[in-house]
Amino acid sequence: DAKTTQPPSMDCAEGRAANLPCNHSTISGNEYVYWYRQIHSQGPQYIIHGLKNNETNEMASLIITEDRKSSTLILPHATLRDTAVYYCIVRVPSEVNTGNQFYFGTGTSLTVIP
Amino acid sequence: EAGVAQSPRYKIIEKRQSVAFWCNPISGHATLYWYQQILGQGPKLLIQFQNNGVVDDSQLPKDRFSAERLKGVDSTLKIQPAKLEDSAVYLCASSGPFRVSPLHFGNGTRLTVT
């Protein structure tokens, strides 16, 4: 079952920052937060992951609160191509990556508006 | 690096027919997953392989679904006989060797059972 809560949908103006929230109030100390997105007719695309420090890569930034009970994925300058469903997942890394740990839920449908 | 390759992209069959999907993971990825994604839902794990051994097939409907990964690289997922409720996108994913390695997905096969 999902360990995360996300709003079902959000809109963002093109060129503005898109801030996608995720609540994971029951996260344990060794669980990582992962973000994926799924553009229509494509498979989920890995974006970023983190444990407790903020992370940034070429796609996005991940801000995790100090108590780790929530996080925000930031797309700094949203484009129309960022319109997708965004999934927030928490999991405990294991010796063998267990597929069931990547529970996707229904995510947030982000629409970038011209 | 080349991504996860899947074929075919689309398949339409009648109920009670059989169908097979093929997946080639990212080179060097020992762990391979098959997910089923029904319209409007997140992906759900069907089966997971580590090299050519099954790690988890607890959610695979074994009366009609089968999967194999004979040489620890490519994999095939088969449905026989298909039911209307099997209409979905079948996604293949692979992951690298590290405990925090994310899953990387192919673009899936969209199956329609009529």
Report on this structure.
The complex is a heterodimer of chains A (114) and B (114). The model of chain A has no long low-confidence stretch (mean pLDDT 91). Chain A has strands at 9-13, 18-23, 32-38, 45-50, 55-56, 61-64, 70-75, 84-91, 108-113. In chain A, strand 5 and strand 6 (61-64) form a beta hairpin. Chain A starts with 8 loop residues before the first strand and ends with a strand. Chain A has 114 residues and is an all-beta fold. Chain A has no helices and nine strands. Chain A has a five-stranded mixed sheet with strand order 1-9-8-3-4, with no helix packed on it. With 114 residues, chain B is mainly beta. Chain B has no helices and eleven strands. Chain B has strands spanning 5-7, 10-13, 19-24, 31-37, 44-50, 53-56, 65-68, 75-79, 88-95, 103-105, 109-113. Chain B is globular and about 40 Å long. Chain B starts with a strand and ends with a strand. Classes of the chains: A mainly beta (114), B mainly beta (114). Chains A and B meet through strand 4 of A and strand 4, strand 5, strand 9 and strand 10 of B.
- Report the largest inter-chain contact: A-B, 24 and 30 residues
Low-pLDDT parts of chain A are none
Total beta strands of chain A: 9
Multimerization status: heterodimer
> What level of helicity do the residues of chain A show?
under 10%
How many angstroms separate the termini of chain A?
Answer: 36 Å
Task: Name the helix and strand elements of chain A from N-terminus to C-terminus, one letter apiece.
Answer: EEEEEEEEE
Helical proportion of chain B, percent range: under 10%
Radius of gyration of chain A: 13 Å
Count the DSSP helices of chain A. Answer: 0
> In terms of structural class, how would the helical and strand content of chain A be classed?
mainly beta
Beta-strand percentage of chain B? Answer: over 45%
Secondary-structure element string of chain B: EEEEEEEEEEE
